[in-house]
Amino acid sequence: AKEKGRNTFSYFHDDLNRISVDKFYLLKLMRDALKEEQFHLYYQPQYDLSDGRIHSCEALLRWPQKGGQFINPDQFIPLAESSGIIHEIGRWVLERACTDCMNWRTQGFGNVGVAVNISMVQFRGGNLPELVETILRRTGLPAHLLELELTESLLISDDNSIQQQLDRLHAMGVTLAIDDFGTGYSNLGYLRRFNASRLKIDKSFVSALGVSDRDKPLVRAMIQMAHSLDLKVVAEGVEDEDTLQQLRLLGCDDGQGWLWSKALPMPEWLDYLQQ
Ligand code: C2E
Ligand code: CA
Ligand code: CA
Ligand code: CA
Read out DSSP for 179-212? Predict the structure, then answer.
């Protein structure tokens, strides 16, 4: 959300539908949304570029409003983080994603995993690994099918507790991916320290590939660097065939984007898998 002044958040579906609300009011709306189960998870496929199969998907949070519009996660996650309510939202997201993934597993899509976005704030308190362990046990989802997407800002912080939690998650068999790669400081040292298995190239680099050659050397370097560290590379924001072609030539492993599908709610996602 654009923060206007100290206490007002402005969220909008498009420029014609801008609603400004008090921060505290938005926070109250989020609390109600949690209680009344207004949040939904949508799933966007991630394709293996070598065999063209769906390898996994990313769970993306959606908050539908009465008029059929959505408040985008970018517009409420920041306030959820600063207020701490992200702990509850994040718990709900993990539980929902693991439950849904078990659901498509039992329908015959046993190898399609799920990637969940984790906010840095969720590592405060130190019990994210316990939470994940409890949810995996309760849902029965094998750990290797759950991937956690973490941003570089988390990994850059020199926090011993975060390192320990990531080590524990890795030891449990949960996969770690680095999200929005290339947008942060990109201190490469942390890539090895944090046992990540996948690196997601930010869509700002990917979408430019189809248009001009400017970012190509950059993307090529990211892919080569990742591969030399034994990391798989996922390109996000793949919107057209040209971009896909470029990514294939550059040796990118997986792709995600509107070329294949937007994020879909559960019944549609099952239909999509069926095709
Ligand atoms: P992200 O993790 O970088 O997610 C990718 C964003 O790109 C998503 O936006 C997705 O809908 C969008 N996208 C997918 N394919 C394409 C494409 O081909 N072209 C373009 N232009 N965009 C594409 P979304 O769903 O609005 O999410 C925005 C951000 O909100 C996410 O960025 C993530 O940082 C955050 N977020 C979403 N769900 C959660 C959640 O459950 N927990 C937390 N902590 N953050 C979340
Ligand atoms: Ca993500
Ligand atoms: Ca991303
Ligand atoms: Ca992002």
Answer: EEETSS---THHHHHTT--EEEEPHHHHHHHTT-
